[in-house]
Amino acid sequence: MREEELKDLAGTHDLSLPDWGPYSRKLFGLAHITGRDGWRFDAAMIPAVAGRCFHVPDALGDSGYLPWRVCNELSGYTWRHQIEWKDRIYTENFAAQLSENTWIVQVTGHNRTRERTCLTFHWNCRFDAPVRVPAVPRLPAGSVWADALDFLDFTRKIPRFDDAMVSDARRRGEMIRPGAVRNACIRLQAATGDRIRLAFPGKPVARGPVPAVLRYFADAPAVVRINGTELAIDPEDCLQEFLLEIAPEITMESLSGSIDADGIALDVRRDGCFFAPAWHDHDIEFTLGPVPGSAIFRHPFLREAHGFYWGDKTMTPRLFRVPDMIAAYHHDFGKIAHTFRSSIGGLSVNKEAFGKPPAGEPDWETFADIAVPPQILEPRESFSCYGVFTSGTPEEVEDQLRRIAGERKHFPLLVRQARTGLISFRSTPAGRKYRFGQERMLAVVMTNLLYPVQCCGKFIRHHSPGKCWNSLYTWDSGFHGLGLLEVSRKRAAESLNVYLTPPEDREHAMIHHGSPLPTQFYLFMELMNRGASMETAQYFYPRLKHCYDFFAGRAPGCTIRGRSGHGLLRGWDYFDNSGGWDDYPPQVRVHRKQWKDIAPAVLTSHFIRMGKILLTTAEELGLDRDLPQYLEDGTEAAELLQKYSWDPDEGIFSYVRHDEKDRPCGIFRHESGRNFNFGLDGASPLIAGICTGEQAGRLWSMLEDSERCWTQAGLSTVDRTAPYYREDGYWNGGVWMPHQWFFWKAALDCGKGEFARRIALTALDLWEKDVRSSYACHEHFPVLSGLGGGWHHFAGLSAPVLSWFSAYFVPGRLSGGMDCTIRDVVWEKPVLSARIRVAEGSGRSSLIAVTGKEDAQVYFNGKAVPAEMPVPGTVEFTLPRGAAGKLEIQ
To answer: Could you give the CA distance from residue 144 to residue 151 in angstroms, rounded to a whole number?
Structure first.
């Protein structure tokens, strides 16, 4: 990335994508981020066979819409919507950016049957607000509100395990509290000696006490002290008036009990202090636009207006207000489909007639519906209609709508021009058979976007594993970034930046939610191997080290390495999942028994690899002072695995039990007497690269054995000969892509190019077959059936299929294992060159280079290297451990 782009990353976790895009979690379509306070304007197209049910693109269900193709930087994207499966009757929708604030949507209905049909489309427009309704301080002029969430410092006499890695990007002590000013408070507990320091923004230092009001929530009586003044907290109340000396900082601590502090209002008495709920109704105000077939939508809370031009003066927007919009389309079909109905029950075109929702009912949804007249389609016939959306001030929107109306005849040309930006995968001829599945996967990876997602007190755009997961996901997102890397280093770097924090952030070693396995280290490793600059390394290195130091046990209160701070890693305090595998058998047993003193092998193995990645980077950046620590940490962790986790009788690394003094005290075994870790966790030290030759041989034998871990679908998460294997599990009995990516890399490190290739090509064959059959991008593949399952538009953990496709079929791509550093790759046909360094060790390491030619000669430091081409156009070869120099492939 360029220096100016790296500067833009600092201080934000947001993505630099267009403000318009597929951000809605309600209906898949086009959405606009309105301001930065969590509001969206959503627009969707709902198709139907005239007179029949609507096909609503419900983003939270398998509703028939299919992300199809995307443009670079998401300046455009297409999606299909199946009306009659499979591709008999469907719509193909394309949204594209015309200018910063204007997007066009083309909707094309296709009839691929042998019978005539009649299609209709309904445009749906609505506003969407943040889920929780905050309270708004209503204070007299001159008064100041200091929110507890803006504390300068939070200290405890007794540190908590998560003080240095607060989950979900919250602040230390932050608790969700509906009705609070920002939907959250800071919990102060006397038992742990909690104290916060607050600053009053913009308030000058003055003398003399002034009235102040503390706003809080409490479930029992408590006592707090604010700058020396003790206050008795009444749980039946939420406001406490007191006198306070004005000072630059305010100190608040709990002396007994517990309270959730919302904040302090300064220079106001209780009777002048009000907190009114913000009305977050999804209401719409609309007026017809300045030209026929247009409308302007506004919301009373928003400054920005939104314009929509559809161009047909016979189509009039109708407003509906209902408890559930999607249910209304499904169950109140006639009320919406019959355009002659203008007012039925609670549905009305007259905003003034709506009133407020009935008392005690949840917020109702208001939306505008614009129906396209039914269109007869003969067999093999298609029909297109267009909508253009714009935003700005009301005056700007009016001007834009006039301009757009004048360009109506050019809409087909504008769409054709925009479609030239859709990404098409280039590959060798051998890779063409996989392109369909790759394009569907890329579309899902790039359109699985949500706004708003809250991160460090701000709303951001975020790549999600699926639209149903409206939150941050650490371990999934590293793989999501690997998928993005196949089309854009910038997109991958921004994805990485979401989850990393600067060293001065003492509350977030990283942005954490879910399994504490920071795949961001592997994303960084691949980013550097794919040509990222040393400036990129300089930016990310201190942030990665900040995270690494937490996993090394050097953060205050951290328990991830046990009470000693030097043990095998176990993350049960932070999440109930060690390696992302929800029903991995020993993990399930640990939680069922609520044991937290049993350590898996997987986290320690990845910790060792994290240190090796940083060791390489520190050497390149000349940070010699950091090298001894990585070497010491890695040696210590490897010795723990070798001494306590390796089971020589069973040939597997184990879950390790600990005694009351946190000392390893034996292998965790199944009631059958067998080791409880026959599966990918037990083989994870291969990823760390710390196995002896005998250990590696036994582990690879388990993974390659078609009776044990290897299946027709790929690597089973659990050894099928284990007494705890089951066929009806989620991960247990399933094949997933992410851990296969790790073992693919480890196989390359160990010179096992043939097995690495088997992992990759089996996954690609499986993926292509499933996507062509279902049009879905699934989470996992049960061993029993080999058919995709789980969420149907799944991105993050399935994204390695993009990496494997590129590694074996995209010309100019050079790939190696985790011990292989690749720099300065130059692809000038017919020569591919790079600087290569392979870490010290025994044996040889495999590399893969895609040239697209039927033969190739490999030279390393000017000497010929034996090579083979088991995949046409792709050369494979090995280099000895410790090798360093220039690679040339001609």
So the answer is: 15
Distance CA 283, CA 352 (A): 12
User: Dihedral angle at the C-alpha atoms of 573, 576, 580, 586, nearest 10 degrees?
Assistant: 110
CA dist 785 and 733 (Å) reads 10
Whose structure tokens read 């981020």?
A: 33
Residue showing tokens 């050079």: 814
Beta carbons within 10 angstroms of residue 140's beta carbon: 12
- Give the rounded distance of the alpha carbon of 743 from its chain centre: 23
d(CA 458, CA 36) in angstroms, rounded, equals 8
629-639 core/surface letters (b: 16 or more CB in 10 A; e: else): bbeebbeebbe
Positive or negative CA dihedral for 580, 713, 610, 598? positive
pLDDT digits (tens, 9 = 90+) for 239-294: 999 998 777 889 999 999 999 999 999 888 999 889 887 665 556 788 899 999 99
Give the rounded percent of residues in the chain with a pLDDT score beyond 70: 95
In contact, 734 and 783? CB cutoff 8 Å: yes
Q: Which of 872, 828, 879, 825 is nearest to 853 (CA)?
A: 872
DSSP helix/strand/coil, 873: coil
Looking only at the bridges linking them, the beta strands covering 863-865 and 858-860 are antiparallel
Phi and psi of 688, rounded to 5°? -70, -25
Angstrom distance (rounded) from CA 474 to CA 459? 17
How far is Cα 717 from Cα 733, in angstroms, rounded to an integer?
7
- CA angle 875/680/721 to nearest 5° reads 110
pLDDT 10s digits, 379-409: 999 999 999 999 999 999 999 999 999 999 9
Tell me the HSE value of 299 on the side-chain side, using a 13 A CA sphere. 25
Report the amino acid identity of residue 461: R
Backbone angles phi, psi at 111, to 5 degrees: -115, 105
Cα–Cα distance, 542 to 520 (Å, whole number) = 13
Contacts for 541 with CB less than 8 Å, ≥ 6 apart? 614, 617, 618, 621, 623
Class of residue 204 by CB neighbours under 10 A (exposed 0-12, middle 13-18, buried 19+): exposed
Contact criterion met (CB below 8 Å) for 824 and 885: no
CA angle 353, 355, 357 (to 5 degrees): 135
Reported pTM: 0.95
Handedness of CA 688, 691, 695, 697 (dihedral sign): positive
- The series of mean pLDDT values per 10 residues for the chain, 890 residues long, is 81 96 98 91 96 95 97 96 97 97 98 96 91 81 91 94 96 92 94 92 65 95 94 94 85 96 92 79 79 92 94 84 88 67 36 36 78 95 97 97 97 98 96 98 98 93 95 96 97 97 97 97 98 96 98 96 94 95 97 94 98 98 98 98 98 97 96 98 98 98 98 98 97 98 98 98 98 98 97 97 98 98 94 97 96 93 97 97 96
CB 788 within 8 A of CB 878: no
- For residue 796, give every residue at least 6 positions away whose Cβ sits within 8 Å of its Cβ, in sequence order, or none: 463, 464, 465, 473, 476, 477, 479, 480, 483
Helical ranges in 715-854 per DSSP H: 738-749, 753-774, 800-809
Per DSSP, the residues of 817-838 read -TTEEEEEEEEETTEEEEEEEE
Query: pLDDT for 96-147, tens place per residue?
Result: 999 999 999 999 999 999 999 999 999 999 999 876 667 889 999 888 899 9
Q: Are the C-beta atoms of residues 804 and 810 closer than 8 Å to each other?
A: no
Q: Among residues 782, 110, 798, which one has the least CA distance to residue 440? A: 798
